[in-house]
Amino acid sequence: MKILILGYSNIVQRRVLPALKKLGAFDQIEIASRKEVPGKVFKDYDTALKDSDAEIVYISMINSEHAKWCEKALKLGKHVIVDKPAFIEAGFAEKMVQLAREKNLCLSEALVYEYHSQVLKIKEISGNPTRITAEFSIPPINPEDFRYSSSKGGGSLLDQGPYAVSLGRIFFGSSPTEIIGRILSKNNVETAFSVLMTYPGGKSVVGTFGFDTQYRNTASIFGMDNTIKIDRIFSTTPDHRPHISVNSDVIELDAEDSFENFFKMIIEKLKQKSFDGLYKNILDDAKALHNLIESCKEKI
After folding, report:
1. What share of residues in the chain are helix, strand, coil (percent, to 5)?
2. Secondary structure letter of residue 13 according to DSSP
3. Which of 5, 164, 175, 225 has the fewest Cβ atoms within 10 Å of its own Cβ atom?
């Protein structure tokens, strides 16, 4: 297989390319970038899509451009993976999924944390959890970063909202019945938010997310069976050995690369030509993210 990467973002350099090379499943990795990049590089995205014979396109651009290039790639018959957030509007997600479904193409959001063994282990031992609390916050980012621009799809809701709204889908297996969100700080765009999401059966997710504090990346998943705590759940580096606290015990897992696991999953889906689960994840998360954003707007 061959893969074409549109955009030479920080995440592509730090995580995507190393994972693809380590996996060794791709005969060729091509990059389209307006930056100077070593190796085979297309300087123009349209030319790259037209001239490349790669079966898969990985889109890693500013958030506001995801839908445009996703649509172009799908129309050319290419499977597509999109950085999170896949789309800045739920309507875009519906349109892109419909197009992918019509052409029987893979369409997936690269929300890779759920494919790490620590998440799979928590799901295995958590029994029937009813509550989740989560915190994911980082120090202020570079003022020139696109995430401070609303026109480019910036803000903490789009940047970290996908983590928040996916928790219930992953651990409860259901969509929220109600979402209450509040913006906590602003700097051109919202830089932090809090959220309460309720689910069928009295279940809930409560969290704070943003880029206006010191680093914090943790979650607790609990109910009548167990109380589980995990650090670095949302962004686990390939060399990190996770420690899961279960009541008074600690389970240590081996280090692994969640991006590598994600691409293994994609390869298996391509072999099976089975994409319905990926479509559903995109649509469910896009709807929940839309409702979170709308709830926050009510109190701006």
Report:
1. 40, 25, 35
2. I
3. 225
Cα Rg for the chain, rounded, in angstroms?
Answer: 19
- Tokens describing residue 273: 């030509």
> Pick from 180, 241, 234, 240: which is nearest to 205 by CA?
180
At residue 110, what is the residue type? A
Per DSSP, the three-state class of 64 is: helix
Q: How far apart are CA 184 and CA 116, in angstroms?
A: 30
Question: How far apart (Å, rounded) are the C-alpha atoms in residues 242 and 244?
Answer: 6
Task: Give the distance, in angstroms, between the CA of residue 200 and the centroid of all CA atoms in the same chain.
Answer: 24
Encode 166-196 in three state secondary structure.
HHHHHHCCCCCCEEEEEEEEEECEEEEEEEE
pLDDT of residue 200: 98
Q: If 0-12 CB within 10 Å is exposed, 13-18 middle and 19+ buried, where does residue 201 land?
A: exposed
> What was the pLDDT predicted at 194?
98
pTM greater than 0.85? yes
User: For residue 229, how many other CB atoms are within 10 A of its CB?
Assistant: 18
